[in-house]
Amino acid sequence: MNPVLEAVFFYLFAGGAIAAALGVAFARVPLYAVLSLVLAMGFIAGLFALLQATLVAWILLLVYAGAVLVLFVFVVMLLQLDKAEPGAHPASKAMAALVAGGVFAVLMTLGRPVTGIPAMNADPQISGGTEAIARLLFNRYLVPFELTSVLLLAAVLSIVVLAKKAKA
Amino acid sequence: MIGPEHYFTLSAALFAIGLFGLLTRRNSLLVLLSIELMLNAANLSFVSLAAHRGDLAGQAVVFFTMLVAAAEVTVGLAIIMLLFRKHGSVSTEAARNLKW
User: Fold this and answer.
1) What is the dihedral of CA A136, A137, A138, A144, to 10 degrees?
2) For residue A137, what are the domain limits?
3) Which of the listed residues A47, A142, B53, B57 has the most CB atoms within 10 Å of its CB?
4) What pairs with residue A110 in β-bridges?
5) Nearest to residue A115, comparing CAs of B16, B76, B2?
6) Mapping DSSP to helix (H, G, I), strand (E, B) and coil, where does residue A88 land?
7) Contact (CB<8Å) A96/B29
8) What gap in Å lies between CA A99 and CA A105, rounded to an integer?
9) What's the rounded Cα separation, in Å, for the pair A30 and B29?
10) CA dihedral in degrees (B94, B97, B99, B100; nearest 10)?
11) How many CB pairs under 8 A join A and B?
12) B38-64: string of b/e by CB count within 10 Å (b at 16+)?
């Protein structure tokens, strides 16, 4: 892709993702926070597509923005959480800002040099199409992939148990 | 030229914003929402490093993260529903005891 066009798209998606993330952290009305996260997922999926990771971009849009966040909206509306929540105490807000800023500083000083490690392959341009990811999942990661079905079964069973207990 | 360090900075910023939300929110539903944001910030750095290093394993990890996050959200929302039925509120301050 044209590097100028790539930069334009990156800053567009990055700015949108940051703005939507701020909405998640600061929106007073719970429904607006959930919808901000839908927006943030959309921008992050755009960044994935920019990185040639088409399969995970589509999964993010369909499973996350589609299914998981609809579940969130459903719960928000079911519990009628339309009232604005009382804000946190200013002192605890300052403390949280300090902790978050500290974590950001640590990530930038300790984690960022990782990006400087040179690529393993001569041609780092790879595409994460469905076939390439499927080959990886069904060969090298076959056991963890099969184990996820156990995890999903455990999640389904736990929800059935939780729902039953509430009725009794 | 957009390099992996740009993506890493963005992902660290999203993670920090999510952490701030996690620490300040009192509505347990929005705490869960902030955790989702942090998980996806980590996913972003996985995908960008996978693209940079020419190794698809980073994208496979993201696939697993999304699966675990989907399971986590469904169980978390079920627990929040129970919390609301028990206390009539989803505030984190309402959940004071583990047993009922």
Assistant:
1) 130
2) 129-168
3) A47
4) none
5) B2
6) coil
7) no
8) 10
9) 8
10) -40
11) 240
12) bbbbbbbbbbbbbbbbebbebbbbbbb
Q: Is residue A104 part of a domain?
A: no
* DSSP letter assigned to residue B80: H
What residue ranges define each of the domains in chain B, with the CATH number in brackets?
4-87 (1.10.287.3510)
The alpha carbon of A49 is separated from its chain's Cα centroid by a whole number of angstroms, namely 14
Cβ of A85: how many Cβ atoms within 10 Å? 18
**CB B50 within 8 Å of CB B56:** yes
CATH number at residue A17: 1.20.120.1200
Of A21, A72, A126, the CB nearest to B17: A21
ipTM over 0.85: yes
As a whole number of angstroms, the distance between CA B100 and CA B82 comes to: 11
Residues B11-42: tens digit of each pLDDT = 999 999 999 999 998 888 999 999 999 999 99
**Residues A70 and A141 both lie in one domain:** no
Q: Is residue A94 part of a domain?
A: no
Question: For the segment B46-95, what is each residue's pLDDT rounded down to a tens digit?
Answer: 998 888 888 888 888 999 999 999 999 999 998 888 888 888 888 877 77
Q: Tell me A63's DSSP state.
A: I
Q: Do A71 and B73 touch (CB under 8 A)?
A: yes
